[in-house]
């Protein structure tokens, strides 16, 4: 086994997407699923695709999974997912295990049996969308911990440019840190205290969820962004059906006003 061998357990939509990402980064991917039709459709780019029942601990052991660098449990069936994860724990798998959970209860069970890294994709996406909606923010918000997130921003606030970062006191003012800067195509990492920002720089920041709004306003011209949003909304063409409905409502309101 090589150091970049990944096992994908469950080759549904989620498993396929994870597999695609890993293959694009030139990793070896071994796919396991109990559905032969699904396995037969696995692309030639995967290192190996096996049709096995992962709830069978002996069958699972024979795949060589004990030497895997990382195992992603992407099984959609909750019971099979729990049994498979229990098998991995019992086998003493040394590699990193990441499991997908269908809901919070599923996540709690997986955590209880010893799976440290558990993701609930729908909840995490919903959480990010909520943050985007709250702060009128176009970019994706990514969770780091339960309380901290990271986002990428384009600097458009002149007040935070042309002065060393140490003088901006970013951590003290907004409880945030700059992780990475891209300036005129040049990557700046690690970020030093005497680095200065310029308009148009791309910055990746880590911030507390509680101060995310302050962080966005600190680096971007929030007033300019809000005006643009309003203009975009005003300039968005209405579909014909919506126009007709609005026209009918206007006519009804006029009639009521006259009759009143």
TrEMBL record:
Listed GO biological process terms: potassium ion transport
Residue ranges constituting the RCK N-terminal domain according to the UniProt record: 3-119
A GO term for molecular function: monoatomic cation transmembrane transporter activity
Signal peptide positions (record): none
Any one Pfam family match given in the protein's UniProt record, by short name: TrkA_C
PROSITE patterns: RCK_C, RCK_N
Coiled-coil stretches: none
Gene3D superfamilies in alphabetical order: NAD(P)-binding Rossmann-like Domain (3.40.50.720), Regulator of K+ conductance, C-terminal domain (3.30.70.1450)
InterPro entries documented for this protein: NAD(P)-bd_dom_sf, RCK_C, RCK_C_sf, RCK_N, Trk_Ktr_HKT_K-transport
Domain spans labelled RCK C-terminal: 136-221
PANTHER family (UniProt xref): KTR SYSTEM POTASSIUM UPTAKE PROTEIN C (PTHR43833:SF7), POTASSIUM CHANNEL PROTEIN 2-RELATED-RELATED (PTHR43833)
Protein name: Trk system potassium uptake protein TrkA
């Amino acid at each position: 086994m090589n150091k970049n061998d990944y096992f994908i357990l469950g080759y549904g939509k989620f498993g396929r997407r994870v597999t695609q990402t890993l293959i694009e980064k030139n990793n070896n991917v071994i796919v396991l699923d109990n559905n032969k039709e699904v396995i037969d459709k696995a692309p030639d780019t995967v290192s190996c695709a096996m049709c096995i029942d992962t709830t069978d601990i002996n069958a699972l052991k024979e795949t060589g999974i004990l030497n895997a660098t990382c195992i992603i449990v992407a099984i959609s069936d909750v019971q099979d997912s729990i049994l498979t994860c229990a098998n991995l724990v019992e086998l003493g798998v040394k590699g990193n295990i990441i499991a997908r959970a269908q809901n919070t209860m599923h996540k709690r069970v997986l955590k209880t049996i010893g799976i440290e890294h558990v993701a609930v994709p729908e909840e995490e996406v919903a959480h990010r969308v909520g943050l985007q909606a709250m702060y009128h923010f176009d970019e994706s918000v990514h969770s780091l911990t339960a309380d901290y997130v990271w986002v990428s921003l384009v600097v458009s606030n002149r007040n935070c440019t042309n002065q060393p970062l140490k003088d901006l006191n970013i951590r003290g003012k907004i409880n945030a840190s700059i992780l990475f800067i891209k300036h005129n195509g040049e990557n700046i990492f690690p970020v030093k205290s005497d680095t200065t920002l310029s308009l148009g720089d791309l910055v990746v920041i880590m911030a507390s969820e509680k101060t995310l709004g302050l962080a966005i306003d600190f680096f971007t011209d929030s007033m300019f962004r809000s005006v643009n949003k309003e203009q975009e909304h005003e300039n968005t063409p209405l579909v014909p059906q919506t126009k007709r409905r609005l026209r009918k409502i206007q006519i009804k309101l006029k009639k009521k006003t006259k009759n009143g």
